[in-house]
Amino acid sequence: MKQYETVLSVNGQLVEPQSYKQSLRKAFTGLGVATSVLVLGAVAILFSNAELRSQVFFSAPVQAIFAAELDLVSTGLAAGGVEVNDGSNHADSTGSSSNGMMPVKFNSIDSSKPLTAGQRQITSYLAKRYSVSPEAVESIVRLAYKVGKEEKVEPTLILAIVGIESSYNPFAASPVGARGLMQIMPKIHKDKFEALSPGDWSPLNPEMNMRVGAKIIREYTRRTGSVNAGLRWYVGAAIHGNDGGYPGKVLALKSRIDSVHQQGQMVASRGNAEKVSAVTVAGTEG
């Protein structure tokens, strides 16, 4: 069978028609350009509008995605089978890791120095309030005073945030991916963890978690000008608006902890004064 080519006549000249594939290619090219323009426009808007950017990246759906990805990574099911070092490896030749999730330098608390009377009173109070063993609470109290001093954050503020966020459970986890004592979002604050221990960290490590939490609240307080406003940022209310009374809850607990600390110090001072008085009287009588 003889085949004929169909031609078009344009201004009296014969022109071969474009193939179907060429037409589709041009159409998709046009769509690609339009899509690129839209994407670039959206990116430009996000980068120019901090509030909108925060609403997008810190929204509940996005945080849920972060949480799901974190769970996949932590269970070794990350896409592609890539092994991610989250601090769960055992010690290598450099000794950078220790028992599971805790690098050596963040794996021990010096308990050789006795707690002050105020710290002992705080430990007793928090252990009863949250039904946690005094030994466990003592380690967290020691850690809060150590971290607070080094990160320039009030230890009792740290302890109050820990109480409200995790009730002194170092393995606490929220549905949106927050982890540990101070409920830190690992994906969002990965840079701070990396700064502490590059390539070898865990949000469930108590000291790492507390250090990052202290850095966050210090940064937010400095940025907003007050602890109250900083706490609103900490809980995400600066983005979503409703803080649920979070700053008031934290500050009320901090005030209570401060009061307990003062009571412990006063009792110790009174006891010391009585001992001195008794020794003086005994010396006089002798």
From TrEMBL:
<dbReference type="Pfam" id="PF01464">
    <property type="entry name" value="SLT"/>
</dbReference>
<keyword id="KW-0472">Membrane</keyword>
<feature type="domain" description="Transglycosylase SLT">
    <location>
        <begin position="146"/>
        <end position="227"/>
    </location>
</feature>
<dbReference type="InterPro" id="IPR023346">
    <property type="entry name" value="Lysozyme-like_dom_sf"/>
</dbReference>
<keyword id="KW-0812">Transmembrane</keyword>
<protein>
    <submittedName>
        <fullName>Lytic transglycosylase domain-containing protein</fullName>
    </submittedName>
</protein>
<keyword id="KW-1133">Transmembrane helix</keyword>
<feature type="transmembrane region" description="Helical">
    <location>
        <begin position="27"/>
        <end position="47"/>
    </location>
</feature>
<dbReference type="InterPro" id="IPR008258">
    <property type="entry name" value="Transglycosylase_SLT_dom_1"/>
</dbReference>
